[in-house]
Automatic annotation (TrEMBL):
One of its GO terms (cellular component) is membrane. It is found in: Membrane. This is Inner membrane transporter RhtA. The keyword Transcription regulation does not apply. It comes from the Bacteria. It comes from Lysinibacter cavernae. The chain crosses the membrane at residues 27-52, 58-76, 88-108, 114-132, 139-156, 162-182, 194-214, 220-238, 250-270, 276-296. PANTHER family: EAMA DOMAIN-CONTAINING PROTEIN, INNER MEMBRANE TRANSPORTER. SUPFAM superfamilies: Multidrug resistance efflux transporter EmrE. InterPro entries: AA-Vitamin_Transporters, EamA_dom, EmrE-like. The lineage of its organism: Bacteria, Bacillati, Actinomycetota, Actinomycetes, Micrococcales. Keywords: Membrane, Transmembrane, Transmembrane helix.
Length: 306
């Protein structure tokens, strides 16, 4: 989660602009970007998992945000002056949602089966997609994607009140992430906004990273660098660009790609078997995504305002 940002006319001229009509090309481009981000999440998670025993899950997440923030700030060198209050608010909420959804998801996974936690988290972006849907076709695509995720994850009857609370918290922040990836993505300096958002996430998560910072050695530093580049820089950049060329309602549905990529990667790389229900879930998600692309074909092209 699988899973990023955007001359003057005022910086906020496109910040709160409502989603416009989309072309099939835009939705296909968004799907490709979300897929790239999802692949980055899976690869980086595999790399980062080897660090959990040393830094803990939250410590590893914090250090990855710190490394990613330094990379993005060095590349885009964002200006701090000249930004409106609403622009800073969007950047702050985007960054806070990044940090919070990771922490809540990790806390949920410690108490719930992975499938349950993943399904709960996905309620966030799918709710955004449903609320923002303008046609019944889009709403049905979102529902179909949710059904597919439930089948892939295979949630069982395990119940843990605190675990569910963290899972729903992850859903809330994933929903905010979905909304503000579009808002930051549609600003004129989206990449600078992304860099500042990731820096904000890094600062918020520092209390988990500082206590383990002294444990970083040359080997773990290399793993953190690669994991942060692939799993944070690449993924969040892809997500922000996907939201820039499409909308929150589209990426909210497309984020269902994450559990599909995870299931397929587990089968191909780790030799894990896919159940019939998981295969049906993959078909449902892919079919919902294809239907979303098809439904967008009759719409005129969408060009972000300048």
């Amino acid at each position: 989660m699988s899973v990023n940002s955007t001359t003057p006319p005022p910086r906020t001229s496109t910040f709160a602009r409502p989603d416009g009509p989309l072309s099939r090309k835009n939705v296909l481009m968004a799907a490709a970007l979300v897929l790239a981000g999802s692949l980055g999440v899976q690869v980086s998670s595999a790399l980062a998992s080897g660090l959990f025993s040393t830094f803990g899950t939250l410590g590893t997440s914090s250090l990855r945000f710190l490394v990613a923030a330094l990379i993005l700030l060095a590349i885009f060198r964002p200006k701090l002056r000249g930004r409106s209050r609403s622009n800073w608010l969007g950047i702050a909420i985007y960054g806070a949602s990044m940090a919070a959804m990771n922490m809540c998801l990790y806390a949920a996974i410690e108490r719930l089966p992975l499938g349950v936690a993943v399904t709960l988290e996905f309620l966030g972006p799918i709710t955004v997609a449903l609320l923002a849907s303008r046609r019944i076709t889009e709403a049905l695509c979102a529902v179909g994607a949710l059904a597919g995720v439930v089948l892939i994850a295979g949630p069982g009857g395990h119940f843990d009140l605190i675990g569910y609370a963290f899972g729903l918290g992850a859903a809330l922040f994933f929903g905010l992430y979905t909304v503000f990836s579009a808002r930051v993505g549609k600003t004129n300096d989206s990449m600078s906004g992304l860099a500042l958002s990731v820096a904000f996430a890094a600062v918020l998560s520092l209390p988990f990273g500082i206590p383990v910072l002294h444990l970083v050695d040359l080997n773990s530093a290399g793993i953190l660098l690669v994991s942060a580049t692939i799993g944070v820089v690449l993924t969040f950049t892809a997500d922000t660009l996907a939201a820039r060329v499409s909308s929150s309602r589209v990426v909210g549905t497309l984020f269902s790609i994450d559990p599909v990529v995870g299931a397929v990667a587990g089968a191909v790389i780790l030799g894990q078997s896919l159940t019939l229900t998981a295969v049906l879930g993959i078909v449902a998600v892919v079919g919902s995504g294809a239907a979303l692309v098809w439904a967008s074909g009759s719409n005129p092209p969408h060009v972000p305002e300048r």
